[in-house]
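Hi, can you check this record?
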Amino acid sequence: MRVQLLGQEPQCMGENALRAIELGSHGVDANFGCPAKIVNRSKGGAVLLQYPESVHDIVKAMRQAVPKEHAVTAKIRLGYEDKSLFMENAIAVYEAGATELAIHARSKVDGYKPPAYWEYITEVRKRLPIPVIANGEIWNRDDAKRCIEVTGCDSIMIGRGAISLPNLADTIKTGATPYTWEQTLALMLSYTQRELNGRKSDYYPARIKQWFTYLNRQYPAADILFRELRVFKTTEEIVAVLETAQRNLND
């Protein structure tokens, strides 16, 4: 497992990278892909893709700070307002000493709207000698196969797809059967217990509702249940709805 860092100051990123390693991380990753406005206003995330030299300096500072036996990686998008600097940013990451690069195949302005422009990743993969990981618009096993065929990448990264279908990685790698709604609901309740026993319980209502916005893509039953629980604001009310739904499935 690697800690992912986000920031704009090379020295601070280097210091934090080293601290992450000291605390047990197996490597560190620089996030140049985050499109969130609050992050970009602070000159972090995807906004840095307008300045390949800054991307280079940040990754270089992390690489110099971290012992050679630990990986230093980065994730980028294809650009900020457009894709004109996609190759410059990829080369900046490589020349700064990164050991691999993950690319979300959209610009910041593209957000998460389909399609993902996998063909740009193909160009980077052909140009760089380090591993390139493809990311973007992978919702099922067929999407993963097409992405690999288009990009030629050996590895892919999944994000929202894994929230929509919790065992997506297993279906891609081993051909496992996608989780049923019953299995996914049981997983949600297991997640619930972990959250309520930890320090994140205050955020539980918002997180579970956010999860449902992706589950709705995969499971019609999730949309029906979400319509019922979305009006509730307390953890107790939401947990009661989930537990009732599970009992009804088991009856």
Summary: The beta strands are 3-5, 27-32, 71-79, 100-107, 132-135, 155-157. The two ends are 40 Å apart (CA to CA). The domain at 3-166 is CATH 3.20.20.70 (TIM Barrel). The chain has twelve helices and six strands.
